[in-house]
């Protein structure tokens, strides 16, 4: 089946990630940017299904890659985030990496959580133009690595555990051109429970 992708709801309200990511960024990012990728992916898939020649199909591949990647990456990104615990979100766990298999693996592969964040932020800040930074599991070597992808390319070689969008639309309204400042703050709202779930599925061989 083609062309039937729909916009998933955010699992929290637009302003739930404040003060680290303001509600207006979340509203535009989810309601406009992600929706645009989905609409364009559906259109491209519908055209692909109607295409009758290889040339027509080849002409559609970059649109499918770009918008399909945008849909996959943003769907994962919303789940990667969760409110930091505060007076409103008393039981929320944003930014908290509890003891467990993922914390152990991060210590094993990076030394400490702080060392991992340092490597992630410096690597991801340096992405030229738009792209994504990932904490990802390498199924060949069985270790966690920091990887980046350009544009809206999804991670294909690794299993994504945590992904961070560093397109300017993800931070510009609040952080302006300071990508590094956005990356410093975002760890306050990272959903490590979701990351650990993905890590456990990855090491057990599930397809993510
Ligand atoms: Fe984005």
From TrEMBL:
GO molecular function terms noted in the UniProt entry: manganese ion binding; superoxide dismutase activity
Coiled-coil regions listed: none
One Gene Ontology term, aspect cellular component: mitochondrion
Sequence ranges assigned to domain Manganese/iron superoxide dismutase N-terminal in this UniProt record: 4-81
Catalysed transformations (reactions): 2 superoxide + 2 H(+) = H2O2 + O2
Oxidoreductase found in the keyword field: yes
Statement: the UniProt record of this protein carries the keyword DNA repair: no
Keywords: Antioxidant, Manganese, Metal-binding, Oxidoreductase
Binding site for Mn(2+): 29, 74, 165, 169
Enzyme Commission number: 1.15.1.1
The family this protein is said to belong to: Belongs to the iron/manganese superoxide dismutase family.
PANTHER family in UniProt: SUPEROXIDE DISMUTASE 2, SUPEROXIDE DISMUTASE [MN], MITOCHONDRIAL
Function (record text): Destroys radicals which are normally produced within the cells and which are toxic to biological systems.
Protein name as catalogued: Superoxide dismutase
